[in-house]
Write a structure and sequence with these properties.
Layout: E1 4-10, H1 25-38, E2 42-46, H2 59-73, E3 81-84, H3 88-96, E4 101-104, H4 114-120, E5 124-128, H5 146-163, E6 171-174, H6 183-191, H7 193-196, E7 204-205, H8 225-237, E8 242-245, H9 248-262, H10 265-268
Helix pairs in contact: 1-2, 2-3, 3-4, 8-9
């Protein structure tokens, strides 16, 4: 199974990989259109960095970053829009501006009202595993069995979401690579994706450019594509439904080549 590609559009000054690059509304709109042209199946817009060590921004600041971009791209792209937020008010506003997915790094824990917004707006929600908060999550994370513990957490969050009125078909889960994980934990998660894929809902992974993908050559974020694609390959092998990436064109080409190796007829049509 070839996973769908969720293209990352951070409209923040401090995201770990591309902070500040798409802070201008016009540039952000152009980049969203470009990612769709490259083959992105959805675009994920975030106005608050949740990288390790990041500091929470105010609701007003987050809205001031994402609303102009949502307004600019509305009607210019024909794929679903995801809003990367932990706040109900941001999700509610984004839904009015065309967003149909909420990507919540807290799995509906940080804002008690967010589940109600997702349910009432019939949005899809990505529930991500995270220990602690962004400011403290990399301070000595520890697991006995990281895959089993993440699976239990995500199973519980699915139950909570359904109880809040969110349809099971609208739930996606994410093991939270790089969020409160040791270096080895991220690779244990990669190895154990089958267990996480057995929760009965679609699975998303987001390894793109994260620090653990630079473990082999100490590369900078923009040069971590090879190891990022290794996780994409692993995700495809076990049937993961979504991958969240910075490098859309390269990921789509990589996935297309893998598909053509399995079915060479596909290459005759020039897969996009």
């Amino acid at each position: 199974m070839t996973p769908k590609v969720l293209g990352i559009l951070n409209v923040t000054p401090d995201s770990f990989s591309d902070g500040g690059r798409w802070f201008d509304v016009e540039r952000a709109q152009e980049y969203a259109v470009e990612m769709v042209r490259q083959g992105a199946d959805a675009i994920d817009i975030g106005g608050e960095s949740t990288r390790p060590g990041s500091v929470e921004v105010s609701l007003e600041e987050e809205l001031s970053r994402v609303v102009p971009v949502l307004e600019a791209i509305r009607g210019t792209i024909d794929v679903p829009i995801s809003i990367d937020t932990r706040r109900a008010e941001v999700a509610r506003t984004a839904a009015l501006l065309g967003a149909s997915i909420v990507n919540d790094t807290s799995a509906l824990r940080d804002d008690p009202q967010l589940a109600d917004v997702v349910a009432s707006e019939q949005m899809k929600v990505i529930l991500m595993h995270r220990r602690g908060d962004p400011r403290t999550m990399q301070q000595n994370p520890d697991y006995t069995d990281v895959v089993a513990e993440i699976r239990e957490f995500l199973s519980q969050r699915i139950e909570v979401s359904v109880a809040a009125g969110i349809l099971p078909d609208n739930i996606i889960v994410d093991p939270g690579l790089g969020f409160g994980k040791r270096l080895i934990d991220n690779y244990e998660i990669g190895r154990g994706l089958e267990a996480l894929h057995s929760l009965g809902v679609p699975l998303l992974i987001g390894a793109s450019r994260k620090s653990f993908t630079g473990a082999f050559d100490d590369s900078s974020p923009e040069n971590r594509l090879p190891a990022s694609l290794a996780f994409v390959s692993r995700a495809r092998a076990v049937g993961v439904e979504w991958v969240r990436v910075h490098d859309v064109a390269e990921t789509v080409t990589f996935l297309s080549a893998l598909a053509a190796i399995e079915d060479p007829v596909l290459v005759e049509g020039g897969m996009s």
